[in-house]
Amino acid sequence: MESDDTAGVHEDAKSLVYEGVVIVGGGIAGLSIALALHRVGLKSLVLERGSTLRATGAALNLWTNAWRALHTLGVADDLRATHFRLEGSQMVCLEDEMSKQISYRVPGKRDHEVRCVKRGVLLETLAAALPAGTIRYKSKVVDIFTDGSNHDFPTIMLEDGTYIKAKDVMGSTQLFLSGWAISPPNSWEGLLVADCLPTLKGMTSIQNYISIYNMV
After folding, report:
1. Between 183 and 92, residue with greater pLDDT
2. Which of 69, 21, 73 is nearest to 47 (CA)?
3. Which terminal Cβ of the chain has fewer Cβ within 10 Å, N or C?
4. Which of 13, 23, 33 lies closest to 150 in space, CA to CA?
């Protein structure tokens, strides 16, 4: 979508640069995509609005499939070295205090690899595996539009006045490809939020635990 501010963008403008693949957002998803592309020989540029990597939340549980993906990206062993493997979870009923224990590892039935990983450590590990210059900090995206030229490749406008024309643009909620219709401004920046409030069901969950003997 073109606005009055972007209608005068020309290919010879000093503020216009060209990229192949641009990823909007230097979070877990954005860095993982960039690293996956790097592993198959494709260069990308990650636009991060902050001056550093931003970890929202303390930690998250990563299950077997996530570890398979991290193994493919080549960072699984580095993360395993600093995060314990969890054995199970425990659910407790608040009314009668009855509890149920769920094991992640049952011989002959299941053997889930579950670890609670610090978000900051995960981001730093992914970023360290990327080539220098892949992440562009202080790069807040204010608009994405097409100007009707150069095969309608999307143009990204940054807050600092820089324009980036890219063949492929990936964001947290949508994927923009050359020739695709571009959504209205800022639509790619939002998230769908359920219109209902959380309710108490009388249950609480202790999601993870490890045996004290494993720490000896």
Report:
1. 92
2. 21
3. C
4. 13
